[in-house]
Amino acid sequence: MLSGEALILGDDISADDISPTPVFSDEPEKIKNSCFLYLMPSIDLKEKVIVGGKRFGWGSHRESAALCLLYSGVKAVIAKSFGYGMYRNLINLGIPALIGDIWAKDGDLIDIYIESKKAHIGKKEFDVEISDIALQILKNGGLMNVP
Predict the structure, then answer these.
(1) CA–CA separation, 136 vs 90, rounded Å?
(2) Quick one: which of 12, 27, 92, 112 has the most CB atoms within 10 Å?
(3) Range of the structural domain that residue 7 is part of
(4) Using one digit for the tens of pLDDT, what is the confidence trace for 78-126?
(5) Strand 48-52 to strand 76-79: parallel, antiparallel, or no bridges (unpaired)?
(6) Is 76 a member of any domain?
(7) pTM of the model
(8) Mean pLDDT, to the nearest integer, of 68-80?
């Protein structure tokens, strides 16, 4: 099980919204500090579970958007749907990317049971989807060994 505080985002959050193009860097601290720079400057993402809408991370397949979430301490992302590149990059980096439509408010504690494909908010239980292959990759810590 993993737990985190909900951060609610809407539909169509692009990879560029997550990691703005003008802030390209290979330094973890700069990548972390650029996360959501134009949408939510200075937001603390540590221990958060992002609850996204449709097409979370659409657009660019740049790995920097997923790295931004990793270096910021995001525990997981649950969204109605993902941009393909974002989904693969999250899984490759060992961040659970789960497909589901859950009802949460900012700050709600979300408990995620990845293997049973369930998320709990208080007494409410929600089904979330993850492929068996993605689940196996997560069990092994991802495909990438990123510090």
Answers:
(1) 14
(2) 112
(3) 2-139
(4) 999 999 999 999 999 999 999 999 999 999 999 999 999 999 999 999 9
(5) parallel
(6) yes
(7) 0.95
(8) 97
Query: Is 130 inside a domain boundary?
Result: yes
Q: Work out how many domains the chain is built from and give that number.
A: 1
Lowest mean pLDDT among 3-12, 25-34, 49-58: 25-34
15, part of any domain: yes
Question: In the numeric block, which tokens belong to residue 49?
Answer: 């579970």
Using CA atoms, how far apart are residues 121 and 6, in angstroms rounded to an integer?
10
Residue 144, domain member (yes or no): no
Residue 144 burial (10 A CB sphere; 0-12, 13-18, 19+): middle
Instruction: Quickly state the pLDDT bin for 147 (edges 50, 70, 90).
Output: low
